Amino acid sequence: MPAQPMAETKQEKIWTRDFILICLANFCIFLGFQMTLPTLPLFVKELGGSDQLIGIIVGIFTFSALVMRPYAGHALESKGRQFVYMFGLLIFVVSVGSFALVSSIALLLLLRIVQGVGWGFSTTATGTIATDLIPPSRRGEGMGYFGLAGNLALAFGPSLGLALVGQMSFSSFFLICASAGLVALVLSSKIKYKKVEQSQHKTVALKFDIFEKTAIHPSLLLFFVTFTFGGIATFLPLHAAEQEVAGIEGYFLMYAVFLMISRTFAGKIYDQKGHLFVFLPGTVLIFGAMLLLAWLPNTTMMLIAASLYGLGFGMIQPALQAWAVEKAPGNRKGMANATFFSFFDLGVGMGAIIFGQIAFLFNYGVIYVVAAGSVLLSMLLYLYLVFIAVRRKQDVR
Predict the structure, then answer these.
(1) For the Major facilitator superfamily (MFS) profile domain, which residue ranges apply (predicted)?
(2) What single-letter DSSP state applies at residue 48?
(3) Dihedral sign, CA of 210, 216, 222, 228?
(4) Which of 66, 83, 203, 252 counts the highest number of beta carbons within 10 A?
(5) How far apart are alpha carbons 231 and 29 in whole angstroms?
(6) Are residues 361 and 265 in the same domain?
(7) Global pTM?
(8) pLDDT per position as a tens digit, 3-59
(9) 324, 362: one domain
């Protein structure tokens, strides 16, 4: 009799060997990615590219990832987690390493498309693998901890990338970024992956099956939030330079620190009280951050904006991801994660491209006013969805 409670307690454990390995692998791949995030615009400028080209090069990456995610979602359920994850990591490593050979905008654009393919497969897989390894009753909390790996990479990646670019050539720098992905590839080979759950019914129209319908609402909310991220990741270093505001490295560090802080409690709030208690407070914080970045009078305000954005996004992202996968059938968890990250990519990509046009026509400050409007739209859409859900419950009664 005493053995049963012990088994149940063990089942609820989050920090298993495999969960630690997937977190470490996630840290490494995100480190390689985050190091390139603020430096690619500088590289495009060195190659003679304009603000419009910067937006397109950043955006095309997310669109190629977006196209691949549905295929990755299906492959996760048919080919297995390990194949999809390691395939994506390998493409990512090769493409980023090839940046070292780039001498033209056209070649960089092509390699960014290839990089997006690897990113689409690897990040769809890693979210699904983490979901497999986390007990369902602690999914919000577990996804928050899992997200800390990416947050740690964000804490060091952009600042480290900017520092290294100042000390070495872009060719050497991109090889270092690729090596971080290579470490992730080695770590991923040590994980014991969950066997895929076979569906009792064959999908008739597989080629039209590009999203999981139960994940649409949280994914759409995420789209309006990550739309703002396209403006930050792509143009904030240039905006700060134009405003003569120093310490852009500090922005990414402060953002990541507060992102990690929010991850330690936001997931638990979601598990206990639901998304209502994390989404609206989180979007209010992001809305305030966008207005501060539009103003950007000095370094202090930039760091305050970073802390607000970090707290807000750290509350929203794991809660929405847990919401996206919790109602999906067991054999559709991969597609639910694919849907979630497709909207994530679409938001970042659309933001980068549209903000590139805004920067060309107006100035960098207008980018963040438009971004604030996007956050406001997400809040209004959320209130509408909650209202509809309440009305349906009342009708059932």
Answers:
(1) 18-390
(2) T
(3) positive
(4) 252
(5) 22
(6) yes
(7) 0.77
(8) 444 443 445 788 889 999 999 999 999 999 989 988 898 899 899 888 888 888 878
(9) yes
